[in-house]
Structures are given as structure tokens and as C-alpha cells.
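Worked example

This section walks through a single chain of length 284. The input is the sequence exactly as stored; nothing has been trimmed or padded.
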Amino acid sequence: MRTLEQYIQNNNRGKIGRLLQRASMAKMDARYTDTHSHRTCLAMRDVCFTRSLKKNVALLQSCLYLRDILPRTSAYEKIPDDILADLGCGRYDLENGEQTYMKEYLHLNIKAYMEQRKIIFIMFGFMDYFVDTFLDGNGHLAHSVCAILIPYKDHYGCYYINSHGQDMKETVYYDWIISKKRVKRVHYSQPVDVLFMKSLVAYWNSQLEDSSPLIRYDGSSRYTYLGPDLQAGDVHGVCFMFPQIIWYYFGQYYHKCHLFHCNGEDYIIPTGKKLIREGISISL
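Given that input, the structure is written out below as C-alpha cells.
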């Protein structure tokens, strides 16, 4: 397995159309979680991650439909617990040397991994994040994001990354498709992503034992990436790549500094662990 750096150094970049075709063949943009891409992320961990991180990080993937989750009125901006309890996720478990796919409840995995004090990396696929007008009428567009839960002495920190960054602040509404030409728009007092994550983390905390450390997430730039839009100018729709690229670099540089050379200058980026503690918007 070649590292991302080796791939770049060999100039195997090709045209964007060919790269997207190969990504689709690997199911990087799939609307389900039992994929070659998911297994490749685990191989990435085993080959590329630092020794200290390999056994201490768990990967979960979850595909969700926001139209079945978000409140249909702005008067009540909390997602009901029964909806959050029903959210599922996919993961792979190593049995007899083989990766076995498991489809389970998300909150049960969060609780189990927190009891083991593991770092939990979640890749979310929102199957209906946007509404766009196609030739045959309204349709939904998907979007990929990720959240990283990191254990500290007395709590877990939850760090949410949407590649849209600061532009996410404008997504303070959600559109339900009524017909090919009509949508029902509900406005909220906060970005949809923040509303979702606040409700989700509050539910996870309610399911923990009394002695368990709580998860902290408040929607601020400390816990939410609100920097530059990493997808600015993207006309191809490559959001699905960002959680997997972040996973790769997180594993490589969480416990070590990143050294690189650019324009005749040498740079040293502190460890991911240090940067994340200073705020997720600073670290990316």
C-alpha cells in the first residue's frame, strides 16, 4: 500500500474525471458503509498511523437522512431522543484475521468505545444535505463530514469538521421537498450542523453511566471547524474525500510534528494533539 505522499511525489495525479471515476470504483462516495473504501481506511490505520495511535482509535461510518432527523418547526430546535437512539453506524471487527462488517446502533458504539478510553473518529454521510433544482425538478445532494471524539482527564472533547468551514454559518435552514418545484423551508437560530451535533452529543451524554466523563461540544470554533471553506471553487462535488483525507493526516500527525519544505523554507507544524486542544478552527 502506497502512502498519499508517495502517490503525490510520483505525479500520479491525472485528470479530475479519471480520479473521480477511481474514487467511485472504490466506493469512496457510496451511500452505505460496507465498502472497499471503509476497509481501506482501516488498512491506512494499520500501515500509516503512528504506533501509539493504531490501537487507540476506532473508526465508525454513518449514513443519515436529515429529513428524518431535523425538527420540522423552528419553535423547537432539539432532535427527539427516540430519533437519535435509532441512528445506526457501520464498523469492521477483526475476527480470525478477517474484517467482519457490523451494522449497529451508533450510540452503543460511542458508549462502548468511551469505556475503553479510545479516540472515536466518525465519518457522517448526510444523504440529503442540500436541495438543488435539476432538469426534472428538485432533488437532494449528499455531503460528507466528520467528528472526532478525544478523551481527556475529566471529559471527552468532540471536534466537528465540515469542509465548508465558515460558510456553514449560513446554513441556518433546511429544505424538505414537497414536489418537483416546491420545498418547505424551516429556519433555525443556528447552523443545521451545530443543531444536529448539539442534540446528538446531549443524547450520548444522557446514555452514559454516572461515573463516565461527559462529552463537550458547544458549536463554538473550539469544537467546530469555522475556518476557510476548503471546498471553495469545487464544481465536481468532492466533499466525500475530506473525512478520509483528514483521517489519514490525523493518524500520521496526531502524536508527531509535521515537517515540510515549501518555497525554499522549512516549516514545522506542531502535533495534531496540541493544535486540536487550541481549537479545531486553528488546527486545520
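What to look for: The radius of gyration is 19 Å.
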